[in-house]
Amino acid sequence: MSHALPVTPLDTLTAALRRVLPVLPVVAVIALLGLPPSPSDEGGANIADAVSGLLVVCCAIHLVRARRRPLSVTAALVLGLPVVGIAVSAAGAADPGAGITGLTRYLQIFVLVPAAVLLLVRDRRDFRLLAWSFVALALWQGAIGVRQYVTGTGASYQGADVRAVGTFGPTDVMGMATVVAFGLVCAVALALGTGEARQRSVAVLCALALLPPLALSFSRGAWIATAVACGAQLVLAGLRRAVKVAAALAATGVILVGGPGVGTAMLQERITSITQVTDAPDQSVTDRYTMWAAATDMWREHPLTGVGLKGFPDNRDGHASLALSSGSDISGAGAAFHKQPLLSPHNMYLLVLSEQGLIGLLALAGSWLALLVCALRGLVRVRRTPADAAGPGLAPGRTPQGTDCALVACGLIVWQLVDFVYADIGGPSTVLTAVVFGVIGWWALMDPSAPAGTVASAPAASVREEAAAR
User: Fold this and answer.
1) C-alpha R_g of the chain
2) What's the rounded Cα separation, in Å, for the pair 184 and 208?
3) With contact defined as beta carbons under 8 Å apart, do 176 and 139 qualify?
4) Which residues, 6+ apart, have CB-to-CB distance to 61 below 8 Å?
5) Rounded to whole angstroms, how far apart are CA atoms 11 and 48?
6) Tens-digit pLDDT profile for residues 52-75
7) How many angstroms separate the CA atoms of 252 and 141, rounded?
């Protein structure tokens, strides 16, 4: 007669590590963005980009070892659609070397890394692990940013070194704002979509803690995208809750912006400038409008295929007006004063339109819209889950399990689509955009309901089964 061996804490820990092992490379990519980029990177590939390449290799090895089925037809179409425009534009690039570089970068950000993340995430627990990883990275970068503002060691803004940029430095002023915004969107989703009081409380505290660094980034595009994304999450979570949370956030905003505090005048002026982009635009807005017009002019000359990948900088001067300045003033946060050339229109849609034409824009934007539609469908499917099937002990009217994951995916895709109106890819934080698309893709294109119940009690159950077998 055989007796089952007792389960030790070491066995439980080993089983837990074994269960999350496939998704750890994704967590590593996120964690590496907390390190300052090398001074030699100059906006190019960094260690996180290199690890994202290893992530793709790890995914391929994992699929071979686990003998998992490949992507579904729908997932392959949605993720592979951008390849059409990217390949055509790379073939038509004036500089073959630049075309190959652009092809590699676009495939990395919008195809390969998202597909790898999608395949490595196995269930909602992996999904939540990545969501909390976003929050942790945002808190780290946000803490550095707030310290930069308080100590006057940030990037230069209106003659003072007070702009919070985290570890990304003054050459990537949108980096910290992007990271903090991703963390804030995830925290809001985890707070709205969970029925567990402890997780909800922690998520609320994290969301409140991320508001100051987002404000101190002085990034108008990130502010607008975050407001739209969080507003959409509130509406999707329920109108009654949306009214309550909106009132609380409004009160918090009044305290942060209108109350006593150092730098209030700067914040108020930056917020006011959002409504003055047409009446009295500053030089940064003028430069942006000028580059937008230049990108549109390039597209008119090459409507179907654009000027080719990496072709915007070479064609900019031939299409931009004299209102365009020589570059952005960069200083502070450990960098000496210098001019940073304006090499992109700071609008992802216009960048794709100018370099890849209508073919590229329809393919890439079509893929993003498909992700949005499928993510919303996943939310509707979860909300329609019967109370008795949504989880043990879930009372009628309570939040169905999986709502937090759905709100994370919907919030991130809305944020990204809005932010692309004011920004494009580039800089050390770009690899995080690839991970975000992979996270969104898992919820939108995989079946979230299938693995949710099968892995719910994986660590303890698997340890008992293995111990009994021994």
Assistant:
1) 23
2) 8
3) no
4) none
5) 32
6) 999 999 888 878 887 766 788 899
7) 21
